[in-house]
Amino acid sequence: MNKEDREALVRYRMARAIETLQEAKLLNENGFWNTAVNRLYYACFYAVGALLISHEYQTQTHNGIKILFNQHFVKTGKISLEMGMLFSELFDKRQKGDYSDLLNWDKNQVEALMQPTTEFVHCIEGLLK
User: Fold this and answer.
1) Is residue 102 over pLDDT 90?
2) How far apart are CA 58 and CA 27, in angstroms?
3) How many beta carbons lie within 10 A of that of residue 51, not counting itself?
4) Contact at 8 Å (CB) between 17 and 46?
5) Taking the CB of the first residue and of the last residue of the chain, which one, N or C, has fewer CB atoms within 10 A?
C-alpha cells in the first residue's frame, strides 16, 4: 500500500471510530446497552486499526489487532496500561454481549465505559496528528 492510500485508510478508520462512538452514545441514551457495548468496542477497534495502519502493521483478526496494539504501543509505554486494559475489557464484554445467552449489560455498566472509551479514541486520534 502506498503512502497516500495508507493515509486515506487511516483517516477513514478514525472517522469510523468517531462515528461509532456517537452511535454508542445514542444507543446508551435509548437503553440499548448490549449494542452500546458492541459499538464502544468497535470505536476502539477502528481507532486501534488506524494507529496500526499508520505504523504499517497489518493483521486480519481482532485478536491480532489486540496483540499488535499491546506489543507496539502498550508495552512500549506509548499508550497507558489502563487504556490497554480498557481495550481488552471492551473486547471481552462485546464478545459476551454478542454471543452469551441471558446476559444483559445495564445502564450503570455502560455509562461507566463511555468516558474512558471517549478518552481512548481521542488519545489515539492525538497520536495520529
Assistant:
1) no
2) 31
3) 26
4) yes
5) C
pLDDT in tens, 11-66: 999 999 999 999 999 999 999 999 999 999 999 999 999 999 999 999 989 999 99
Tell me which of 3.90.79.10, 1.20.120.330, 3.40.50.11690, 2.60.120.260 is the CATH number of domain 3-120: 1.20.120.330
Q: Degrees (nearest 5) of the Cα angle 99, 101, 103?
A: 95
Integer-rounded Cα radius of gyration of the chain: 14
Residue 17: all three cell numbers together: 471510530
**What's the rounded Cα separation, in Å, for the pair 55 and 50?**
9
Give the closest residue to 82 by CA, choosing from 28, 119, 41. Answer: 119
Q: What is the dihedral of CA 60, 93, 33, 119, to 10 degrees?
A: -70
For the chain, the first-to-last Cα distance in angstroms comes to 20
Show the CA angle centred on residue 53, arms to residues 49 and 55, nearest 5°. Answer: 125
Q: Hey, what's the cell of 44?
A: 476502539
